[in-house]
């Protein structure tokens, strides 16, 4: 029997923008009435072949750079069709994973094949290990879909978090990673790096976010939060600029300095609020680590207070 092609997104695909809200699995009610559409369509009620078919796309054509920017009606229609195909390509991991899960658990292959391994290899040309990776990935992708769609490589890095710490912690982990990354892409490598900072056991799902935030401030997740450039220290003995000097200098630098102070104050207030009631829990959970972090917090609080007095050198505060 000839093998069929199971098209999947590349593991090197880029992460989608966070905040996409639509469901990854929208199953039409009439799907069950169309078994002739293939195994994937029959199992999940979604015609992925139509989305990924080459014949359904327009023939590529060249447009010179001098053509006006606004698209004409035909170009807009072509863009819509192509983006629909790409969107379906993103969903392939989830669709294929759920379809394989249904086939495997229901042993729907048994009419013609003795094992699930024989079925996926003979029909779809994929190894059993790859099939099980897709099966593991689809619930993870659905769980994080309100935050953003993920590809197979990203799902592979999230699966251990879901297995070790539970679904809620996995969702919190991915959401916090995306928030810390901001406009940067959350790649599979970034998720793998973030996963390494998690402790063996989480006291609660929200602890995953706390651990990631601490790791970010300590520079332990540079793929997600790149380290900041060191702040230039004012040389010892150099006179502190007077108000007149500031007025005569670049006013933009003064405005930026005020903005930095406002941001620092907001962060200080957030730190103060977040420490309420959690110190005792941290000391109970991991005394050694908690004591080290608290000592560093006190040290930087003293340094911040010293700098807030306008001193040029904070060596005496240590």
Overview of the structural elements:
By secondary structure, this protein is an all-alpha fold. It has 3 domains: 1-60 and 75-150, no CATH class; 162-228, no CATH class; 249-317. The protein has helices at residues 39-44, 48-52, 73-105, 116-124, 128-143, 152-165, 167-181, 188-195, 207-217, 243-248, 251-274, 279-285, 287-308. Helix 3 crosses helix 5 (128-143), helix 7 (167-181) runs parallel beside helix 9 and helix 12 (279-285) runs antiparallel to helix 13. It starts with 38 loop residues before the first helix and ends in a 10-residue tail after the last helix. Residues 7-51 and 312-318 have low confidence and may be disordered.
